[in-house]
Amino acid sequence: MILSTVEMHTGGEPTRIIVEGWPAFEAHTLLGKRREAREKFDHLRRGLMLEPRGHDGMYGALLVEPDHPEADLAVLFMHNEGFSTMCGHATIALARWAVESGRVKRQPGETTVRLQCPCGLVIARVARDGFVRFESVPSFAYALDCIAPTKTWGPVTVDIAYGGAFYAFLSADSIGLDLNSSLMRAIVDAGEEIAHAAAQAIPIDHPEEPDLAFLYGTILTDGGEGADKPSRNVCIFAGRQIDRSPTGSGVSARMALQVARRQTKLGELRQFESCTGAVFTGCALRDAASVASRKAVTVEVGGLAHFTGEGRFRFDPDDPLREGFALT
């Protein structure tokens, strides 16, 4: 078996776009394909994401047939631990790839790309220079000032918000860390421990789709709002994976939090910086339809992805490591 890929990165965070070779799906809906991928094809995810073909920080995007009538293409997102529901950095990469590959015909000015993600339809706009702006699914604050008991820091206060996936947010200095000077290992340890503690202490319920009802990761911030200068944040997800980008779905969730706390008004632009110095823009464009009883907003996220190469990955049947491995 050979799988063909296009390799990109957004702010240093990789996106391995799988364009050919994946076995056909029997499921007709995107969430059905996601369940089928977990049950039948997880060995291919592991083989592409983990060593020797990948690494602990690899991220993937599998192109599949859309079932949404307005979508240009559909995607399943994957990483070292499983299949996620939304990914902003990969959306930015996919939108640029769709236009530059000819999958979506380029238009004068910006080109619109409609991407069906497991969390819903995402509308992206690609400028002539490759810069991408996308409107995510309705984002909302889920729970404010929640207590997550940890062994290391005792009770920790976090906010939970949804931007296509659920995240726990807290300021790094609330647990004695500095995102500009602390060792990354300490930040990763904190993110992983707090994610486990928050998931146990705070029940997550998506009011419309049970498959989305889980805490995806922790986002530690510098406490800023991103108005006068970019606010740094670091996202830890999938166990101990570090997002090298500012985290697109995390920016959507963070903007929803800022609106809920009246730190941001509709139409105001904010900037968020990752550990590599890459910057995403975020803007709460308008109120969205409420998700159950929760007030939601439509957030636009902007960023730039770059091409790094192409790949053809072989899965030899006599290779004992063909399904990948991880050193822990």
Report on the structure:
This protein is an alpha+beta fold. The chain folds into two domains: about 1-130 and about 305-315, Roll (Diaminopimelate Epimerase, Chain A, domain 1), CATH 3.10.310; about 140-305, Diaminopimelate Epimerase, Chain A, domain 1 (Roll), CATH 3.10.310. About 20% of the residues lie in helices and about 40% in strands. The chain is built from five helices and 18 strands. The protein has helices at about 30-40, 40-50, 90-100, 185-200, 250-260, and strands spanning about 1-10, 15-20, 60-65, 75-80, 85, 110-115, 120-125, 130-135, 140-150, 155-160, 165-170, 215-220, 230-235, 240, 270-275, 280-290, 295-305, 305-315. The protein has an 18-stranded mixed β-sheet that branches. A hairpin with a 3-residue loop joins strand 10 and strand 11 (about 165-170). The longest helix has 18 residues, at about 185-200. The radius of gyration is 19 Å and the shape is globular. The two termini are about 30 Å apart.
Q: How is this structure best summarized?
A:
With 328 residues, the chain is of the alpha+beta class. The chain has helices at residues 30-40, 42-49, 88-100, 184-201, 248-260, and strands at residues 2-10, 13-20, 60-64, 73-78, 83-84, 111-117, 120-126, 132-135, 140-150, 154-162, 166-171, 215-221, 231-237, 241-242, 269-273, 279-291, 294-303, 305-314.
